[in-house]
């Protein structure tokens, strides 16, 4: 396997952006503090998410049967997940009948081996990509680069992230943490290194930035013979894959190359074409705040003389069957990656997507990541607690995923896992002591009297940083000092017992 930096046909070095699998492994509390310190990012996020929220609210208000649509989406997804094995077999048969080659991948490593082998078989050393979260999930760009294959991002936001040697921070708008000025500087400094340079005097107007990206990518589209895509939906009865997008880069990837490799999570399957009617109304309104998305591309295998002639579909598990086996947790597999929960989340708006340590940020990511990867790492243990449980995410989810309930469910899993492997018994001992106190009202009253005495004697209003292990609590919270008077004491003084 080649370890030399991949080059394009003009001999230019390809970008080497960090991939998700190599990002710094920081638990959410530590990563969140870094996000909070970035004032420019916070301003960018506040403006962008506020704009998208307003647009979404306006277009949703236009639909009198919006709640019925949400219920229909929920029902279709639930029914599909209950019989997922059958629908996947139907999908494989339909894809094969249509002329596509189906590959099954149990995990990221197997998927990357399949993709690398398929690209190598063509003799090519570069590919173009239409935005695909699942390829980011498995670290595909990194695997291709290690094999000497350049992967060019063609979605505008993904291009910004790649040229900026950055990480995506949002499901829908990966460069949401960047403002126009930052994007202009990235284009001016990086485009010429990896292809057609940005024009002289490039402004930060959106139309000019988009034009620079279009010119930069056009040569890659026209020369690259292999494309890699994801899919928003996969229709079992016909073997049709569906991509919705806003820029047309997807259409270019799906029609110009000779070979097309589509990487699809197994939860993306829908039983029939008629089911698309519901989701093509729910998705654009919930994601971009549009009545419909500008480009909807559907393809069903190869067609002679039209589009790619060699079509492959990689159906990926990578932890999804583990999530499916959880009767409660499987509800998260209804997710259609709209990002509505991110745009309304007060935590995400302040800390940004990088704090979540994964391709899936925000409330839904705080559930999906522990489900897909387990709760063995410090990152995945911390994510279910990255929420205030305000419930706004549940209210806007187009397929009615009870996100707040699932966060509590995942927290329980983390606690149970912690109990099984916990060497330090300090915290369990504290919990047992608290349980003993609260089990009897006499003991609880005595504890209250003792705490109020401490409140009278100590001239402080908040409890500052404490030594370990209590520091894990106080370093992330302002803890008020216990009051000088308990509620029971106040009640006796201010309320007639006969009232």
From TrEMBL:
Residues annotated as transmembrane: none
GO molecular function, one term: 4 iron, 4 sulfur cluster binding
Keywords associated with the record: 4Fe-4S, Electron transport, Iron, Iron-sulfur, Metal-binding, Repeat, Transport
Domain LUD: 89-316
Gene Ontology process terms (BP): lactate metabolic process
Bias-annotated ranges (Basic and acidic residues): 1-12
Superkingdom assignment: Bacteria
Chain ranges of the 4Fe-4S ferredoxin-type domain: 331-401
SUPFAM superfamilies registered for this protein in UniProt: 4Fe-4S ferredoxins, NagB/RpiA/CoA transferase-like
Gene3D superfamilies per record: Alpha-helical ferredoxin, NagB/RpiA/CoA transferase-like
Domain Lactate utilization protein B C-terminal: 411-494
Chain positions covered by the region annotation Disordered: 1-25
Xref: NCBIfam families: LutB/LldF family L-lactate oxidation iron-sulfur protein
Name of the protein: L-lactate dehydrogenase complex protein LldF
